[in-house]
Design brief:
Rossmann fold; alpha/beta
Length: 608
């Protein structure tokens, strides 16, 4: 029976929304994460209002204190009764402002950290769920920078909005009310006009200079990506003596970053100067009005002090409005980038209601499979073969024939374009990817290890495995003696991508890891092609031992490694051209026999 993948959804790996999201849209995306901490937000806001009420009360109390100081020299009773009580109250209000502010931050810290943690974890999980195609195309340095900045943006948005914007608005409302009620409307009018000019100027200039900031961040991401790429390929750089070339390339990006930073800084200086001009003008107008009131007898000296204190209290936070607005805009941009990562569609996703794979025998079947990474360049054409339960089937052929693609399809890193891949009669597109991958183990051609201990890398096959289980797997892979002979044993660090180990040692760690996982289906993807003949022969025996009693797909370039396979499938240009046991294929004198003769004569010439 022929299965067509067209009957199943094949989502494309596309980048989130087609239209750019507005700032309000980004905030709306953030709100559900904060909603779970809504009671903390409510309590924090109560403390915020209390802190601002205490802060506004300070100038009012200061006015009373100044006005009360009209006692005669030597009047001890007045000194004790009025000023001392007011001074104590003044100190109490100052303390209350700090106390309520700290309580607000203490209450809300859990919401901030919890929200940042939830989003970061969700992004991390989602990135692991994305297709192999996405990870082959991504730039690691730039992407990690986006995630880092996005996580920091959560903290910035919450802290700036709850700790700067909202408190300032509350304080402005309180001060305007007091000025309008207690004095004439001009005081409130001057304050409002100054605020309107200040905010309009700040928003306009910040919007204009945002492009310079964005350009700077993009250049920074590119420079970071290139630096990481160069360091990851340290050996290649050394092989070709290209240290100066890499330094020049990095310096070109640093120079672009320097120019962009200078543009950003010069526009920031313009913003700050304009803000100070508006603030200074407003303060002069307010103090002139207050001084005139004192002279005319409409206001007391305490009123003058109170107005001045109000203005200072208002404009200190407003002085940072440009920075705050810029940071909020940048935080929204950074957060949007992280949300865009979250919204990338999974090219390969579980179907709704997908069941777990039930493995009884472990028989694998490729049924008329067709596949293309790019629709214009098909890789596999109508490929059919079966790996019976507990048997080993090898796939051989020239480079580019599509051999490794079979392993990727079996792991379901991609979905087939036509036909079906099944295990024990279950189409792997109909089951959960987690259960599918739990049932398959692989020893790849290029084993990449984590920059951790030998034990960690072997135990990665079954997280939580005991040291005894790890050692048993290492013995089965014939690497236990080597590990034990090192000074730190299983605690030996393997270096980034396992570079401290030789090719043979890495392959044995990979075999031990797969043995520890103990899956019913195994894939050996050219597992010995990067090794010398002595290592290859040694590891080949371990691979045969590992495959004993399991269903195994062996992808090989060297035909000498698959002569014992139950069946050999010859793949050429994505099509099956021959199949059968080694002896039968040699006797047929076809493509396999020709490849065998070429390799044998090549090895003989090398030995000679």
């Amino acid at each position: 029976m022929r299965h067509q993948s067209a009957a199943l959804p094949a989502p494309a790996d596309q980048a989130g929304p087609a239209q750019p999201r507005s700032d309000w849209g980004t905030l709306a995306r953030l709100l559900p994460y904060l909603w779970r901490y809504r009671w903390r937000v409510g309590i924090a806001l109560l403390f915020l209002v209390a802190a601002k009420a205490a802060n506004v009360g300070v100038p009012v109390l200061l006015k009373t204190l100044v006005d009360s100081m009209n006692f005669k020299p030597g009047d001890a009773a007045s000194l004790l009764v009025v000023p001392v009580g007011l001074l104590i109250a003044y100190g109490g209000l100052r303390l209350s402002t700090s106390l309520f502010t700290e309580l607000r931050e203490l209450i809300f810290a859990k919401a901030t950290e919890g929200t940042a943690r939830s989003i970061s974890l969700q992004v991390f999980r989602h990135l692991h769920a994305l297709s192999l195609r996405f990870h082959l195309e991504r730039q690691t340095g730039g992407m990690t920078r986006d995630i880092e900045r996005g996580t920091r943006a959560v903290h910035s948005l919450i802290s700036y909005s709850l700790y700067s914007i909202v408190p300032t608005l509350i304080e402005v409302a309180m001060v305007l009310t007091i000025l309008a009620v207690k004095f004439d409307v001009w005081f409130a009018g001057i304050t409002v006009i100054a605020l309107v000019f200040y905010i309009a100027f700040t928003v306009t200039v910040t919007e204009w200079r945002t492009k310079f900031r964005k350009e700077m961040n993009e250049i920074d991401s590119v420079a970071h990506s290139r630096a990481i790429d160069s360091l990851l390929n340290y050996e290649t750089v050394k092989y070709f003596n290209n240290e100066d070339f890499e330094s020049r390339r990095y310096d070109e990006n640093l120079e672009k970053l320097r120019r962009a930073s200078l543009k950003s800084q010069s526009t920031l200086s313009l913003l700050n100067t304009g803000q100070q001009l508006i603030i200074a003008t407003a303060l002069v107008a307010m103090l002139w009005r207050a001084t005139e009131g004192v002279v005319a007898g409409r206001m007391t000296l305490g009123d003058l002090v109170m107005v001045n204190a109000f203005m200072i209290q208002l404009y200190i936070p407003l002085n940072f409005l440009g920075v705050i607005y810029r940071e909020i805009k940048q935080s929204l941009t950074d957060l949007d980038k992280m949300f865009t990562l979250l919204e990338r569609n999974r090219e390969v996703d579980d179907l709704p209601g997908a069941r777990d794979l039930k493995v009884s025998d472990g028989a694998v079947r490729f049924d008329r499979v067709s596949f293309a990474y790019d629709p214009t360049r098909p890789i596999l054409h109508d490929v059919s073969f079966e790996i019976p339960a507990g048997k080993t089937v090898a796939v051989v052929g020239p480079s580019g024939a599509g051999k490794s693609t079979l392993a990727r399809l079996l792991y379901r890193f991609y979905d087939v374009s036509g036909g079906a891949v099944s295990i024990d009669g279950q189409d792997i597109r109909q089951v959960t990817q987690t259960s599918l991958r739990q049932s398959i183990g692989i020893v790849p051609q290029d084993t990449v290890l984590f920059n951790d201990t030998v034990e960690y890398n072997i135990a990665y096959g079954r997280p939580g495995a005991s040291r005894q289980d790890v050692e048993e797997a290492a013995r089965a892979a014939h690497i236990h003696d080597f590990i034990s002979a090192t000074p730190k044993g299983y605690d030996t660090m393997v270096g980034e991508r396992g570079l401290k180990l030789s090719g043979g040692e890495k392959q044995r760690v990979a075999i031990a890891r797969t043995l520890l996982k103990n899956p019913p289906v195994l894939i050996f993807d050219e597992a010995t092609s990067a090794l010398d003949s002595a290592n290859e022969r040694a590891i080949q025996a371990e691979l045969r031992s590992a495959a004993q009693g399991k269903t195994a797909l062996v992808i090989a370039h060297r035909l000498s490694t698959v002569v014992d396979a139950h069946e050999i499938v010859v793949l050429e240009a994505g099509r099956v051209v021959e199949r059968g046991p080694h002896a039968a294929l040699l006797a047929r004198g076809g493509r396999y026999a020709e490849m065998w003769r070429l390799q044998q004569s090549g090895e003989a010439a090398a030995d000679g």
